[in-house]
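---------- Forwarded message ----------

FYI, see the Dihydrofolate synthase/folylpolyglutamate synthase record below. Original note from H. follows.
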Amino acid sequence: MTYGQTLEWMFAQLPMYQQKGKAALNHKLDNIQRLASHLNNPDKKFKSIHVAGTNGKGSSSHMLASILQEASYKVGLYTSPHLKDFRERIRINGKPLSKQFVVDFITEHRAFFERNQLSFFEMTVGMAFDYFAKRKVDIAVIEVGLGGRLDSTNIISPEVSLITNIGFDHTDTLGDTLDKIAYEKGGIIKNGIPVIVSEYQEEIAEVFENIALEKNSKLIFADRIDQKPYKTSLLGNYQAKNVKGVVATLKELKGFEIREVDVIAGLQKIVENTGLMGRWQVLGRHPKIVCDTAHNTEGLQLVLAQISKQEYDMLHLVLGFVKDKNLETILPLFPKDAVYYFSRPNIPRGLDGSFLKEKAAKFGLKGTTYTSVMEALKAARKNASKNDFIFVGGSNFTVAEAL
């Protein structure tokens, strides 16, 4: 198979949460454990840092990888979902794995995948672990896909774990209270392995404290310890919380020499070192166009606060959501004095633009429906003056189509 044919087979044959939602999830670790055994347990052949959380886990993962790269280590980075190319998910020192590796891996193990009916995510995690083991990385930063306790990445025994924060997202899968969600995220805490929580949240701190006590794991709330402030190249004031968690995590990482200059340089060269996209990413200057992958209540609150600090004549918002988002809590966050461009991300889970427009009108948000994200962005560009501000967001998939 060619690389294109391989991807077509992967997307067509294997359930994928991003496309199908909750129906794609296994809720057990037996499949990934069976796959790891089939691959000769690659997860046991490299050191790792495990990263979970509702918001900020992607940015934090890239920060960690960038700093470790600056310290001259060979660093694997596994994240999800991808925005433009599947290979974004699996990188070493910022370079995606080769198309040939993807083809060879699927070809060699296709019969096993079909026989065991593995999910897209399980297969991709297996591919990442196999790649990192074969390329002999010094350490890999592994981002949780969904939740933590029953996530396919949770077969690793990391050197340290990082949980960024807890908010309401994927409530149909992880639970409908912050306590339940925190318990699922806290499932990455391992016996005797330190865990950092970037943001202390009084209402759920006890959940982490109880798990850490049970596991005999050192627990640190990063924003409750004295830390030197660091600047990052990632735009958005909300990144400060992520930086605190990352710095505290690296201080707990034993056996790796990371200097102050590595931290400073790593935080300034995140995009250059890792290829990160979609975090307050500037797509144009006149008018200023920014996209961000924030897609839940807490994440969008932070992004909208950042937008409110910008200087502009008129605000244009290009929005697209997936069907499982709670619009009743998300839409009230948006300003009424803006022009809206409603669209549907081009995936099966994409929320119909007309339905979104109808819902938004109930909250005083007025605009027009477009057949695609690009059509919506094109209209916003046409309507905006050079002193206006255009924002594109609502989901990873909306952003992906705009890039």
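H. also flagged this: Residues 16-26 have pLDDT under 50 and may be disordered.
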